[in-house]
């Protein structure tokens, strides 16, 4: 039998291979990367019966249009995504969190992520991807990871190295919850900001700017007044840090962020809210709520428990 | 040596070594980095040294802030522990078309090109940290006479290999990237090699760098 492949008819806006990401490389200037929305990443793998750390295709806004050539394979899509599957002359609307058997010459057309940003496509088996420092995650800014460090390109081919002969139909009922407020622990430069800036930060809404990507989410709204200095000595960053440069507009560090930065940190998004934060699309509003460290730890535990409950239902 | 440990969010320790930027404080940061790394603490997923801070991020599924803080606070580092850095020579060509901001620097610093370059090449530099983009080294300190601010408008694309200066520091752009440093030259040497699984960085914190001035001919024939 010849190769099993997807032909890329349309690559989509920013489609990349992602897995859990790479660790212990910040000191070299290499961020985690990895799937932005970890819960939907894990669910995608679990639905098709993969190891939870398997590579998947992550897409943003408009996803790829793919044509499959090969032996039949199971596939699933997670997130809040509109997509179509074409089989012979039949076209069906696909549902997220449900597996589909795909046959030779079938097409998958991922039209859009609805009121969200990221979605995931998994196959029962493995994509033929290269690994760099223990991960296939593509970081397009440093050209690291699978697909020569590039997002999916026009007319390229995606090779499948292994198909699991696992065709059991799986399905869960899950709706991505939107949360009212994104919770934040105060940052290490909290006292650099005026009282008004602090109260504005937690009371006013901020709009997610179009200039947001896997590196960072830029916010627009009331300018946050700095009463000390808007430059600090460059120091390490982690994902979820909210930096405020001189112009007073916050920037949240996301999974492909620069590893060090020199702007004051007003806050850090709690780990429990990261998956939901990254799904807030440009043009939507965000409101922040301050919580303490111990609350954040409890909320994370609850979030993880919920994720594992979903996984065990599959 | 660590003055204070705060939480940076719910999954990182922010270890503060003081406000100043100097070799002594930074050497302490690097010593802590080396020692913590040696302990192989499984719950730690990144340790980021910078001028005077050390950020330790961890897996919140495996440990909590206060538990890891207790472990880190117990680490004892000898004051006279030596930092074992390498000596590395970096060739740099400061002729056209590589010296993008040299003419502008003559005006900014009110010095001739030759004096700027002499003052730049006569010093050895200490690597304080690497990062921002993969493998970029932050080196210091440059001669007092050469301290200039960043460009008013940062470049959208600084060519790969560019050597820049700003304030007390000099760096090397390991990738084409946006940036606002004053570019005085370019190195043909590969400072970051992403094909290497182990030690992709040529320069690491604690290393000593000597820049060597080369001609355009040497640059183009460099292997």
Summarize the model shown:
By secondary structure, chain A is of the alpha+beta class.
How would you describe this structure to a colleague?
The complex is a heterodimer of chains A (314) and B (223). Chain A has two domains: 4-163, no CATH class; 182-313, Beta Barrel (Cyclophilin). Chain A is built from four helices and 22 strands. The longest helix of chain A has 21 residues, at 293-313. Chain A is elongated and about 65 Å long. Chain A is an alpha+beta fold. In chain A, the strands form four sheets. An eight-stranded mixed β-sheet of chain A has the order 21-14-15-18-17-20-13-22. In chain A, strands 7-6-9-4-1-12-11 form a seven-stranded antiparallel β-sheet, with no helix packed on it. A five-stranded antiparallel β-sheet of chain A has the order 2-3-10-5-8, with helices on one face. Chain B is an alpha+beta fold. Chain B folds into two domains: 4-73, Gyrase A, domain 2 (2-Layer Sandwich), CATH 3.30.1360; 87-220, Cyclophilin-like (Cyclophilin), CATH 2.40.100. Helices cover 22% and strands 30% of the residues of chain B. Chain B has five helices and 13 strands. Chain B has helices at 23-39, 65-73, 102-109, 113-121, 216-220, and strands spanning 4-7, 12-16, 44-49, 53-58, 87-93, 124-130, 137-140, 155-158, 162-166, 169-172, 177-179, 182-186, 208-214. Chain B has a seven-stranded mixed β-sheet. A four-stranded antiparallel β-sheet of chain B has the order 1-2-4-3, with helices on one face. The longest helix of chain B has 17 residues, at 23-39. The radius of gyration of chain B is 19 Å and the shape is elongated.
